[in-house]
Design a protein that fits this description.
Elements lengths: L2 H7 L44 E4 L7 H5 L17 E5 L2 E11 L2 E9 L2 H8 L1
Antiparallel strand pairs: 1-2, 2-3, 3-4
Length: 126
């Protein structure tokens, strides 16, 4: 490409000029009062079938890799929670209740002894 072609290559490109006297137009947004929008459903039936992960946490501890590698069948891992302390019930990893372990028809269950208030659950989200 010659110098003349390079100099004229930008001649057909669009140019943008701004003048000091022009100002941007103010943005306009639709009203948030719900005018024209579909009314919100009055019940929550549409969310009742959403699956949630419910976990009962027995306890936890910290170990170094050396201790983990030494574990074998019959090893006992000491947990931080004391015997008789309530277990924590988590829904999607958020604490919602505490309770005690029970056996029902040869299966473990949990009897709720303390349900976390809605206000406390909202504080957990922050």
């Amino acid at each position: 490409m010659s110098d003349h072609e390079v100099a004229n290559a930008g001649a057909n490109a669009p140019t943008h000029t701004t003048s000091a006297s022009s100002s941007p137009a103010p943005a306009s947004f639709p009203s948030l009062d719900g005018g024209g929008a579909a009314p919100a459903p009055k019940n929550i039936d549409f969310i009742l079938d959403i699956p949630m992960l419910v976990t009962v946490q027995v306890g936890s501890t910290k170990m170094v890799i050396r201790e983990l590698l030494q574990l074998g069948q019959g090893s006992v891992i000491e947990l931080e929670k004391l015997a008789g302390e309530p277990m924590e019930v988590l829904v999607n990893n958020k604490l919602v209740a505490r309770g005690e372990v029970v056996v029902v028809n040869e299966k473990f269950g949990i009897r709720l002894t303390d349900v976390i208030s809605a206000a406390e659950r909202v504080q957990q989200l922050a």
